[in-house]
Amino acid sequence: MAKIALAQVTKRYGEQVIVENFDLQIADGEFTVLVGPSGCGKSTTLRMIAGLEDLSSGSIRIGDREVTGLQPGERNIAMVFQNYALYPHKSVYENLAFGLRMRKHPVGEIDKQVRWAAQLLGIEDLLTRKPRQLSGGEMQRVSLGRALVRSPEVFLLDEPLSNLDAKLRIRMREEIVQLHNRVGINMVYVTHDQVEAMTMGDRIVVMRNGRIQQVGKPLEVYDSPANLFVAGFIGAPEMNLIKGELCEDQGKVMFFGGGISIPVSTSALGAAKPKEGVVLGIRPEHAIITYDSREGIPATTILVEQMGSHTLTVLELDGDTTSSAGVRTCFRVLTSRRDELSAGGRCRLDLRQSRIHLFDALSGFSLAQSQVG
Question: At residue 340, what are phi and psi to the nearest 5 degrees?
């Protein structure tokens, strides 16, 4: 095992900056996920760790070694790609053994490593088959095994599950996490799927436009997003974000906007002052649909999605005049199963004030986190 340190790593193609001032420390044995939309620089960052891309500036260390100028084969890393890259004319056994044969390992050691990896991944009965005889999940296991037999210090995985169907992706991500727990090797995993990031990573690194937006444990990032981008990107369904402003009313600081009028706590308020433009954020599971005519925000149900164990309801709030085009803001509420809800019904919306987030409308930064900083 080996820790990984990236210091001020930057990658440019001409005038175009792909990754900028990327600083990250990855501890021994950690499962780290780089997550963000397409084009944010996460795969380029992984390829720079692997040595497949040169750095424009900055440095990378793996363990006690400075590897910035080393070739991929000198870094003791293994990489698993989105495409399986298996040799179609070779058996599974030969695919697993190929890298070790090229490095002229003894035959007995090769056989031992291949059978160890096959047993670990549950593919012992596939060793004589050719890739064309395998399913997508089986081919991905072979791809993982080919990396595993080399006993690398670092595993790099670049969207390895993108070619699998939804059900198989869930099973394979469970298997990769279990594999990490068994072998304890540093893994750096790239994905655009925030559900994969949340469920797999010890820590997640949220990226946008080549820059780190936030680093933390999955639930820390989910519960305390650093800015509007992280708030909107992490979470499914996404956080409700409502533009408005702060006002004083009878000694209380109130949020007004999008049909919502609600007092805000000092913990969410930060250093913001009345009359400043802000964005209120609240996750769908932290809002409650009620039918109490005396309390809550009046609303109309416009869509109900029954998801089995949960119900996702989309509401229009009365008094919402945020759009000059006459289009009201949709507000999403995620609850346990509610069979009685239907489109067109009238209800009221109650927000859990302790779960409200406030962001600066101009910078996008969380007001609570800027207060802490």
Answer: -80, -10
Residue ranges making up the domain that contains 250: 235-372
Overall average pLDDT of the 278-299 stretch = 89
Six-digit token pair at 122?
């549950």
Closest residue by Cα to residue 366 from 245, 230, 205 = 230
Is residue 325 predicted with pLDDT exceeding 80?
Answer: no
The per-residue pLDDT of the chain, averaged, comes to 89
* Residues 203 and 62 reside in one and the same domain: yes
Asked if pLDDT for residue 103 goes beyond 90, the answer is no
Give Dmax (Cα) for the chain.
Answer: 82
- Residue 108 and residue 256 in one domain: no
**Residue entry with tokens 């109490």:** 292
pTM of the model: 0.89
CATH number of the domain at 66, please: 3.40.50.300
Concatenated DSSP letters of 272-329: --TT-EEEEEE-GGGEEEE--TTSSEEEEEEEEEE-SSEEEEEEEETT----TTSPPP
The contacts of residue 137 (CB under 8 Å, 6+ apart) are 164, 168, 171, 172
- Residue 195 is predicted with a pLDDT of 92
What integer pLDDT is reported at residue 251 of this predicted model?
74
**Three-state DSSP class for residue 359:** strand
User: Residue 356's closest CA among 258, 298, 277, 286?
Assistant: 286
Residue 171 confidence (pLDDT) above 60: yes
Instruction: Return the amino acid letter for 23.
Output: D
pLDDT in the model for residue 269:
66
- Helices and strands (H and E) in the chain: how many: 10, 20
Alpha carbon distance 337, 328 (integer Å): 26
Q: What DSSP string describes 336-353?
A: E--TT--TT-EEEEEE-G
